[in-house]
Amino acid sequence: MTTSRPAGPPSDGLAPNALAALPPAPPEPPSGGGQRRAILTLSVGHACVDVYQGAVSALVPFFVADRNYTYAAASGVVLAASLLSSLVQPAFGALTDRRSMPWLLPLSTALCGIGIAFSGVGSSYPLTLLCVAVAGVGIAAYHPESARVARIASRGSHTAMGWFSLGGNIGFALAPLLVTPVVGAGGLGATPVLVLPAALGAALALLAVRRGSAAAEGPGTRTAGADDRPDDRRSFVRLTLAIVCRSVVFVVLGSFISLYARQRTGGGTAVGAAALFVLYLGGAVGTVLGSALAARWTRVRVVRRSYVASAAAVAGVVLVPGPALYLFVALASAGLYVPFSLQVTLGQDYLPSRVGTASGVTLGLAVSVGGVLSPAVGALADATSLRTALLPLITLPALGWLLTRPLPEPALPAQR
C-alpha cells in the first residue's frame, strides 16, 4: 500500500528534511468509476481461472464412477493440480516483485483451460495427472500477478480486494454447475467443452493488459505495496501456517464432499454436485461478509473469530447426518472464506517490500497446498471410512485460531 505526501506545509511537526526523505507522491488514485471497472474486469478474470480449481474437484466423482478410481487415486488427481502449483507459485510471486508481467494473465488463463479441457480425453491415468498439472501451473502463474495488479487498482482497499477475491469464489461455485451437465451428458470425453471460460478470461485479460498496463506502471508509480515499512516476517509465517490449516480443510472437503453427501443422504450424482455447489457458494458469501466485518472490526479480530466458527461448522459437516449436512457445509464454507481476502491484504501488509511474494503465498501457495494432503485422506478413507478420514479436519480451524492469536493489526495509512 502506498502513502501520499501532503501537498501543503506539514501539519504534523515533521521537519523539511524529514519530508524530503519521504518517497515521491504517487499519482492520484483512479476515479471511482475507473477503479470499479478495473476491479470488475479483474474479478471476472479471476472467476474464469478459479472455475478450473473447482473443476478438478467436480471431476473427481466422474473419475471414480467411469474409471473406477479408488479414493487414493482420485485424490491423486487433486494432488497433481495442487502440488506443482504449490511449488512454483512462490517463484512467480518473486518474479512479479522484480518486474511487471501483465502478459502472464492471458497466458496463465489459457493454460488452465487447456489442462482441464484435455484431462478427460483418453483413459490414461498419467495423462490425466499431466493435464491437471498443466492447469495447476496456469493457476500458479495467474494469482501473484493478478493480486499485484488488483492491489494497484484498488489502492490497498480491503473492500475492493474483497470483490476481487469474490470473483474467484464465484468461479469455484460455478465449477460444478458447468462440469456436471457437460460431463454428465457427454462423458469424460466432453471435457474439451470446458475450455470456454478460459477463452473468455484470456480475452478479458488481453483487453485489460492493452488498456491498463501502461497506466498502472506509468512514471511515478511505485512497486505495489513498497511503502518503506520493515517486513514483519514472524507474523507473516504465522499467518501463512493458519492459511495452510484453512486450506487443508477446504481442499479436502472440496475433494470428497460430493462423495460424502451421496453416502450420508443416499442420493446420486446430482446430490453430490449440489453439495459441492453449496460449498463453493458459501465461500462467495463468506468473502463478502468478511469485507463487511473488517469495516467494523479489525481484520485480525475477524480472522480469529472466523476460525472458531469454522471449527464448529466443520464438526457439523462430519458428524450430522441427513439433509442438515447442507446447512453445515454452507456454514463451514462461509466461515472458512470470511478471512480469505483479509488474509491476502494482511500478508501484503506484513511483507510490504514483497507484495508479489506475499500474494503468491497467501492467495496461491497456502491455498493450493491443502491438496498435498488429499491423498493421505483418501488412503485413510480406503482403509477405514470416508467419515473417519474427515474427522481430523475438525481440529485444524482450532489450530488456525491459536496461530492467529498473537498477530498484530498492521497500521492503517493514516497511522504510518
Brief descriptors of the model:
Growth Hormone, Chain: A, 16 helices, mainly alpha, 416 residues, disordered N terminus
Task: Describe the 3D structure.
- This protein is an all-alpha fold and 416 residues long.
- The chain has one domain: MFS general substrate transporter like domains (Growth Hormone, Chain: A), CATH 1.20.1250.
- It has helices at residues 16-20, 32-67, 71-98, 104-117, 125-154, 158-186, 196-216, 233-265, 269-296, 299-319, 324-337, 340-350, 355-368, 374-383, 386-390, 395-404.
Question: How would you sum up this structure in a few lines?
Answer:
The protein is mainly α. The protein has helices spanning 16-20, 32-67, 71-98, 104-117, 125-154, 158-186, 196-216, 233-265, 269-296, 299-319, 324-337, 340-350, 355-368, 374-383, 386-390, 395-404. The longest helix has 36 residues, at 32-67.
